[in-house]
Amino acid sequence: MTEHLTKETFLQKVFNYEIHQEWAYSGDQPCVIDFWAEWCGPCRAFAPVFEELSTEYAGKVAFYKVDTEAEQELAAVFGIRSIPSILFIPKNGKPQMAMGALPKGALHDAIEEVLMNQNASAIEAGN
């Protein structure tokens, strides 16, 4: 299941940009954040795909949504200029952004490549 983030929950669960200058992810598992808005047709079309993958990756990857209309400060912090915008945040390393409503296969591949392979690499390295 996806969780809708407010600024307050974002600061707790993802990144407290009010305290940290450098990126410091707060989560205990990788995450994907969908920046969206209710009025956005592509966002609404993408929502079921995002939900499906949140179920498939339950317990391995956290799935969050940020309503850019309600949380304009969060959208500004990440320079969101078009929606949907998808932010992939590995447990270690820098986040990566993708613009647009990704097809399910492309989103799945991005999760595997950006988030899951990094975990496998860390395990192989003994971390």
- Name of the CATH first level: Alpha Beta
Cα distance, first to last residue?
28 Å
Radius of gyration: 14 Å
Per DSSP E runs of 2 or more residues, the count of β-strands stands at: 5
* Strand arrangement in the largest pleated sheet: 1-3-2-4-5
CATH superfamily: Glutaredoxin
CATH structural fold name = Glutaredoxin
Q: Biggest β-sheet, characterized? A: 5 strands, mixed
Q: Could you list the spans in which at least 5 consecutive residues all have pLDDT below 50?
A: 119-127
- Listing every helix as H and every strand as E from the N terminus to the C terminus, the arrangement reads EHEHEHEEH
* Name of the CATH architecture: 3-Layer(aba) Sandwich
The backbone outline, from C-alpha atoms, is: globular
Rounded average pLDDT: 90
- Give the helix proportion (percent range): 25-40%
- SS strand fraction: 15-25%
Number of helices: 4
Structural description of this entry:
By secondary structure, this protein is of the alpha/beta class. The protein has one domain: 3-Layer(aba) Sandwich (Glutaredoxin), CATH 3.40.30.10. The protein is 39% helix and 18% strand. It has a five-stranded mixed sheet. Strand 4 (85-89) and strand 5 (96-99) form a beta hairpin. The longest helix has 21 residues, at 104-124. Residues 119-127 have low confidence and may be disordered.
